[in-house]
Amino acid sequence: MAVAQPQQDTPRTKFAYDEWMEGRGVPVHRGFFVRDVRSVELSWWEERKCNAAFIQLMGQEGVSEARVTEIPPGQTLPPYRLAVDEVVYVVSGRGVTSVWNDAAPTPKSFEWQDRSMFLVPNNAYRQFSNMQGEKPVRLLHYSYLPLAMSIVPDPDFFLNNPYQARVSEFATQQDFFSEAKVVNGGGGLRWTDSGDPNRAFWYGNFFPDMSAWDKLDANTHRGAGGATVTIQFAGSDMSCHMSVFPPLTYKKAHRHGPGRVIIIPGGEGYSVMWEEGREKIIVPWQEAALFVPPNRWFHQHFNLGGKAARYLALHPPMQFHGYAEKVEDRLRDQIEYSAEDPAVRQLFEEELGKRGLKSAMPEQAYKDPNYEWEPKKF
User: Fold this and answer.
1) Residue 25, class by beta-carbon neighbours within 10 Å (0-12 exposed, 13-18 middle, 19+ buried)?
2) Chain centre distance of CA 183
3) For residues 322 and 299, what is the distance between their CA atoms, to the nearest angstrom?
4) What is d(CA 222, CA 170) in angstroms, rounded to the nearest whole number?
5) Are 284 and 35 in contact (CB under 8 A)?
6) What is the tens place of the pLDDT at every residue in 165-190?
């Protein structure tokens, strides 16, 4: 469906993506977080023939897209095409996706379930089906469409483009949507060559259940004895990571660039986000909560539950990552426990006390900035 564009002599006051998004007639959820994507308000999106909503939180603007679509019980949605790569996370439900393009017109189909994640490559058609007869499916879609539309401010260029894709990895590899493969040290991956032969990166386009994924590496520099999986999607610049950390502990505060959408695959707790020198925002979370740390805001994650907590961070383009993941910048972009405001620890212990629980944080971690956490098995 074509969208009227502003006259060329009219100054643009909004991102082109925002003009398109706000013209769809479905809810746009703003602010700092969404409490539960499984129950967030949706309404009918005529073009996609389903109920849907956009999520445009502070920190996403102009960089990344998040939207929710719902598939009724036993139904199949009409196929659509998109000129940019799209990551899909299954918020709830069980179903099938079929993907094809002009170079490979025979659909590749694969099944998914709660908390599966996969990438649909650019210029491919995709069709989603709900295999359940008793309840709807909810999907979270993530892409760089806002950034792309700032370069070419015409929705039809991305939604109705007749470009014929060349034969690609998608067309030639039968296992494009099989489970991911490990690349030790990240050698050969565009963004993730760590130089550490002991660190594993996962390369692929299908991850069956992020709540059960146990192929993790120790991530000691963030504290709490946590572990991480780092993911590069095959044939794409898109990437993400998931962190897992023990019950009754919390991670070190850190900051980075904009556009990083975080969704919770499992656990109970809260995060705190703040711009340096400004008031702090508290984000409560459980499974299917979603939030976005705004550009260069510190943020810190706290596990109040009796089991390990997980947060999945869908990355913006590498140009927006910031510097917080680089060792030489930790003094600027990460706050050690020994240097944090004592109120951080106090609030955590008060919240645990309300639940009849006590912190598992070792006292030595608050005294020694070089304290080494024992890696945990998850």
Assistant:
1) exposed
2) 21
3) 14
4) 36
5) yes
6) 665 555 555 566 766 777 776 666 65
Walk me through the domains of the chain, giving residue ranges and CATH numbers.
Answer: 18-161 (2.60.120.10), 181-366 (2.60.120.10)
- Report pLDDT digits (tens) over 219-256: 878 899 999 999 999 888 999 999 999 999 999 999 99
Q: Cβ-count burial of 366 within 10 angstroms (0-12 exposed, 13-18 middle, 19+ buried)?
A: middle
- Distance (Å, rounded) from C-alpha 351 to C-alpha 260? 27
Q: Is 344 helix (H, G, I), strand (E, B) or coil?
A: helix
Q: Of all helices (H) and strands (E), which one includes residue 34?
A: strand 33-34
Residues 307, 304, 292, 370, CA torsion sign? negative
pTM to 2 decimals? 0.92
Report the distance separating Cα 322 and Cα 315, nearest Å: 11
Tell me the DSSP string of 264-319.
EEE--EEEEEE-TTS--EEEEE-TT-EE-PPTT-EEEEEE-SSS-EEEEEE---GG
Type of residue numbered 293: P
Helix (H, G, I), strand (E, B) or coil at 106: strand
104, 173 contact by CB (below 8 A): no
- Secondary structure of residue 244 in the 3-state scheme: strand
Residue 292, CA distances (Å) to 37, 75, 97 in order: 14, 31, 27
Query: Counting beta carbons within 10 angstroms of the beta carbon of residue 194, is it exposed (0 to 12), middle (13 to 18) or buried (19 or more)?
Result: middle
Cβ(228)–Cβ(217) under 8 Å? yes
In one-letter notation, the amino acid at residue 348 is: F
Compute the distance between CA of residue 177 and CA of residue 175 in angstroms, rounded to an integer: 5
Length of the chain: 378
Of 144, 145, 125, 162, the closest CA to residue 20 belongs to 145
Q: How far apart are CA 272 and CA 351, in angstroms?
A: 13
How far apart (Å, rounded) are the C-alpha atoms in residues 344 and 258?
24
Task: Give dist(CA 142, CA 140) in Å, integer.
Answer: 7
